[in-house]
Amino acid sequence: MSARPGAGGPGSDAPAIRTRTPRELKRSRRPRAHSCWDHLYAAPLWPLHGANLGTLLRTCDAVGACLVVPRFPWVPEALARGNTLRRPVCVHWTGDPLRWLERQRAAGKGVLGVELADEAVRLADLPAARRATVMVLGHEQHGIPPDALDLLDEAVEIPMAGTGASLNVAVAGSLVLYRLAGLL
To answer: How open is the CA angle 33-39-41, to the nearest 5 degrees?
Structure first.
């Protein structure tokens, strides 16, 4: 592989890789926060750690997804603390997670759970979402509750070579969202 002219290399002061400037990035991205596109939803319906919600919210912005969270008293502050974005992001609030999932299925949305299950598809084999899709994330210690598993259309599993049982909600959700958005 040869270097581009003026792109660095032996004897050159220019770096081999040029990063984009903030101005270039701004021109290449959408000019304002997206409203609800009704296509991808990240739904950590049984959250445990607030810091992960803010991180997942930033991923939602990056891929054009909405975040769905329960109305727990600590969730608004967790989102505010973890959200480093300068503009509002699409957040939907829900009460009863099971009823909310039932309504999404009735509306024709696909419901995909991130869960270790015999029937789960490997993340690498997961196709991009072709219809409105809800990605359900369970509790970080207990996973998706058994009564919610029946509301899933399918499950996706993130393969792991290490000794841990799972990734945290923000990391797992981010990986799956990028795949569903067709960006990986």
So the answer is: 80
Tokens 């296509």 — which residue? 39
51-72 pLDDT tens trace? 789 889 989 988 999 999 999 9
pTM equals 0.82
Q: Which two tokens stand for residue 24?
A: 């270039």
Instruction: Name the DSSP class of 135.
Output: E
Q: Report residue 93: phi and psi, to 5°.
A: -105, 140
Q: What share of the chain is helix, strand, coil (3-state, %, to 5)?
A: 30, 15, 50
CB burial of 64-89 (b: ≥16 within 10 Å; e: otherwise) equals ebbbbbbeeeebeebbeebbeeeeeb
Task: Answer yes or no: are the C-beta atoms of 126 and 154 closer than 8 Å.
Answer: no
HSE, side-chain direction, 13 A CA sphere, residue 29: 14
Task: Answer whether 113's CB lies under 8 Å from 155's CB.
Answer: yes
Angle at 165 between CA 174 and CA 172, to 5 degrees: 5
